[in-house]
Amino acid sequence: xxxLLVLVRHGQSEWNLKNLFTGWKDPxxxxxxxxxxxxxxxxxxxxxxxxxxxxxxxxxxxxxxxxLILEELDQTGLETIQNQALNERxxxxxxxxxxxxxxxxxGEEQVHIWRRSFDVPPPGGESLKMTAxxxxxxxxxxxxxxxxxxxxxxxxxxxxxxxxxxxxxxGLTPDEILKRELGTGAPVIxxxxxxxKIVSVQDLAA
Length: 206
Prior knowledge:
Subunit structure: Homodimer.
Number of helices: 8
Binding site for substrate: 9-16, 22-23, 61, 88-91, 99, 115-116, 159-160
CATH class: Alpha Beta
Enzyme class: isomerase
Catalytic activity: (2R)-2-phosphoglycerate = (2R)-3-phosphoglycerate
Site (Transition state stabilizer): 158
């Protein structure tokens, strides 16, 4: 029995393009983001993938990315579960701020700490550790059991919510996961054994 889990970060959003901290705000995809999502669907179609269930966040950029992927797979009626547990990290007071402007206001070192430390949150927001504490219980309760039962599963979410999942799946340290970059609209394909351990990983961004 194949146990298949595909993770995909949403395509480029309007705020990605503007270099803004996005968090739980809800900008749409850019034209490039739409193209990235369609290409992800085409790549999965070329691999002859068909899914049994899909999960996504409460944010439209992830939902639209998933929808575009499923269109390419002719699976627009697929059962899809949306939950804010899969939302992007909340950037708190930085939300909506240009990243260069934030460096000018708070200093480059402080902004780097907020963005790239594991357990230091920005003011009013979440650290990656806090994001993982939100994402992982949901993953372990709602998603992983379905994957282990043989349901081919796709999760369309966000850079940091997916980092939390990857950290768990791959057994990475905080330092290792902070260095992990996820391309927009680039699926990562996991095949797992009966215990949820990785048999193989294929990153279509590579």
